[in-house]
């Protein structure tokens, strides 16, 4: 026991709590299993320890100890690789796959959660040593709230208007509203699709959103989440029964065709609305300088 | 280059309209055409698309 023991223990505990709070099993169903949780809690504990140890090391003038943090960075990059590999391996056995963009998004968030844990532990230990436990508790609380806020990105529902639309056949062509989805030849399949299928139209609010929701990875993420939450009417060997999203080239609207087992319009709208916007799908053409320049030019 | 889509079979009631590399199934009636198309779809894990009333193709996606 020395003067820093309490501070380090406090930092490690707060960091681990932060990781536990961020590790929730939600509709994405990941990580569902005890083993997955154990892995992430252990890594969270390691991250918290590294964050907590940095301050006493600096106080003791052991500056080289800070290089330990680079080990942490490597470690967490491995977390990202691990997540990416596991999810890619199991993705081909999903009825509706997650898609690479979604997997990358999940992997990135697992890595960044560990950094947040490290910062939480770091700041808590720092304030414990500089001031006292009460200040440290307040700082830890702020860190936990901030971490929670940073970890929740925007949702599809905030970007687009979601409307229920009729699905129909024009000959063999399947349409959601006026958006062509695919060609279904066999009359029997067409009947199944009309019976079990549902259609939705997503109307983007501005030009940035048109490109974001046009992203193929983002579209696959919507299909995956809807299939997980509402079930899916398909099996291997029935490729004609595939949920699909196609785009209206005129105005960037998306036509969503799904085959849910729970056919409840308001539930489906809520599920589509709560699909996360993937970081790598976000585009901001309106922020580009050349775009703005061109805009000014038009006015003159 | 990876070929992502391929026509696995052509099913038709009008043999004047087709020829070429993919296996061709010539049927007598629309009913037989639909029956064979449905079976081939299940067997080959492809999707049967209707190009016209008398011409169906099975495509692997």
What does this structure look like?
The complex is a heterodimer of chains A (300) and B (61). The mean pLDDT of chain A is 86. Chain A has helices spanning 5-22, 34-59, 68-91, 100-130, 133-151, 156-159, 187-196, 207-214, 216-230, 265-273, 289-299, and strands at residues 160-165, 167-170, 173-176, 179-183, 198-204, 244-247, 254-258. In chain A, helix 3 (68-91) runs antiparallel to helix 4 (100-130) and helix 4 packs antiparallel against helix 5. Chain A has eleven helices and seven strands. With 300 residues, chain A is α+β, with helices and mostly antiparallel strands. In chain A, strands 1-5-7-6 form a four-stranded antiparallel beta sheet. A three-stranded antiparallel beta sheet of chain A has the order 2-3-4, with no helix packed on it. Chain A folds into two domains: 5-152, no CATH class; 157-284. In chain A, strand 3 (173-176) and strand 4 form a beta hairpin. In chain A, 58% of the residues lie in helices and 12% in strands. With 61 residues, chain B is an alpha+beta fold. Chain B has one domain. Helices cover 25% and strands 36% of the residues of chain B. Chain B is built from one helix and four strands, in the order ββαββ. The longest helix of chain B has 15 residues, at 30-44. The model of chain B has no long low-confidence stretch (mean pLDDT 87). The chains are: A alpha+beta (300), B alpha+beta (61). Chains A and B meet through helix 7 of A and helix 1 and strand 3 of B.
